[in-house]
Amino acid sequence: MVFNFKVFKKVSPNGKITLYLGKRDFVDHISTVDPIDGIVLLDSDYLNGRKIFGQVVCSFRYGREEDEVMGLNFQKDLYLASEQIYPPPEKREQNLSKLQERLIKKLGPNAIPFTFTLPQNAPSSVTLQPGPEDQGEPCGVQYYVKVFAGESEADRTHRRSTVNLGIRKIQFAPSKQGRQPCTVVRKDFMLSPGELELEATLDKQLYHHGEKIAVNISIRNNSNKMVKKIKAMVQQGVDVVLFQNGQYRTSVASMETQEGCPIQPGSTLQKVIYLVPHLDNNKDRRGIALDGQLKHQDTNLASSTLLAAPDQRDVFGIIVSYSVKVKLYLGALGGELTAELPLVLMHPKPEKNKLLHADSQADVEMFRQETIDQE
């Protein structure tokens, strides 16, 4: 049986350097990150006396491109990995992946393997949704693999002999559910006896994108106030770590109801509200965090960011979190009562790919020569 495996290919504008990657999504497993392994194919007459370097670049844009005036630049590029690919260092020991072995066998002696390792605390790929009238590159964290010809790793690259191919650093949902979120909040009133109690519970802690979130609400009104309205919402929290005040929250799904209201003094109410956070309902809202986007691919709301420890936050990262907030409205004099529950929103781990067999065939996806202008 012949299996097809996908290969991503991009050629430099001068046609002399070709980059092959087996995948463009690299998974952060909290303790380790998938290695970035690929092949660089060099033209025969390009090997004489030239050096080829490879780098993994994390590009963090924290301001709009259209606001860059008078020398301002709202973008930082971090070189997370960098090494000389050709001529290869003499002492380099390299365990080739199955994909690299197959490509070297197919492409011949001018195919040079490389492997890069990302640091554990490197930020995940996140894009902040631009407004309808915004132009230029969106804010967020993007990655790309860069291969170029030069004299040193710090050499100023020439566009014609440079290949840039976008990749993503992503996380998948853990295999086990965490503790079921539950909270009880109470409100008493200065000039009247009794208190209002709100108990909120989610059916689980971990949800996959597109899944319905069930919010179980229990209200016990032992005060002499009336509950006139109930509102539940899913809030996305975005923390741009670079800025001290770069934290904000946005409601990405909400429902308001007066069913069962008003809740009179001495009465109770049990209710379940269903919420589905989805990008389709937030298409034109500036600042919503999305999963890092590759060209020609749809995306979704950003997944929750999982950290090995709370203090392991890269200064160039964007940390995303979600919570459900339930509000009881008591009128102008009574005020509000609010309960909040954290949750995790992520993609499930995909099934493991089939092993490559000797009779596997490569399904090559080509990219146009739209290298990022480094001049």
TrEMBL record:
GO terms for molecular function: G protein-coupled receptor binding. Pfam families: Arrestin_C (PF02752), Arrestin_N (PF00339). One of its GO terms (biological process) is negative regulation of phospholipase C-activating phototransduction signaling pathway. InterPro entries: Arrestin, Arrestin-like_C, Arrestin-like_N, Arrestin_C-like, Arrestin_CS, Arrestin_N, Ig_E-set. SMART domains: Arrestin_C (SM01017). Keywords: Sensory transduction, Vision. GO terms for cellular component: cytoplasm; rhabdomere. Residues 192-350 form the Arrestin C-terminal-like domain. PANTHER family: ARRESTIN, PHOSRESTIN-2. Belongs to the arrestin family. This is Phosrestin-2. It comes from Dianemobius nigrofasciatus. The lineage of its organism: Eukaryota, Metazoa, Ecdysozoa, Arthropoda, Hexapoda.
